[in-house]
Amino acid sequence: MDVIFHIDEPSKWPVLLSNVQHYQEWLQAESDNSSIEILVNGEAVSQATDQSDVDLCLLARDVNIAVCANSLRQRHLTQDQLQGGLTVVPSGVVELVKRQHAGFAYIKP
Fold first, then answer.
1. Who's near 52: CB < 8 A, 6+ residues apart?
2. Torsion angle defined by CA atoms of residues 50, 48, 83 and 19, in that order, rounded to the nearest 10 degrees
3. CA angle 75, 77, 81 (to 5 degrees)
4. Which of 2, 55, 71, 84 could form a disulfide with 45 if both were Cys (CB 3.0 to 4.6 A apart)?
5. Share of the chain above pLDDT 90, in %
């Protein structure tokens, strides 16, 4: 069961990361190789930078972490300021629609 987790509020990072961890554990126990994606937009993009205390580098090895280019631009952030392993998508809203249309379940803590 492919899933996309959506975060746009910085205060929700602990909950989102916990949810992703629990889902990964379940997938592993079930020997399920479904895809997990995290879509980061809005104010939450500031925690995707290399200056953040939220460490996404290890998670990015097993999870596709997509960051909204529009949200970066609105906050005067560049792709070079992001943590390693993250992907920039042109529009977070479009990414959510594309994934849901492809059958991904949507979770927003």
1. 46, 83
2. 130
3. 150
4. 71
5. 95
Which residues are within 8 A (CB) of 36 and not within 5 positions of it... i.e. 6 or more apart?
2, 3, 4, 5, 20, 23, 24, 27, 62, 63, 64
Sign of the CA dihedral running 21, 54, 67, 9 = positive
Query: Of 15, 7, 18, 36, which is closest to residue 99 (Cα–Cα)?
Result: 36
**Using CA atoms, how far apart are residues 44 and 106, in angstroms rounded to an integer?**
17
Cβ atoms of 35 and 2 closer than 8 Å: yes
* Rounded Cα–Cα distance for residues 26 and 23 (Å): 5
Tokens standing for residue 19: 């949810």
pTM, two decimal places: 0.95
Secondary structure letter of residue 90 according to DSSP: S
d(CA 43, CA 8): 6
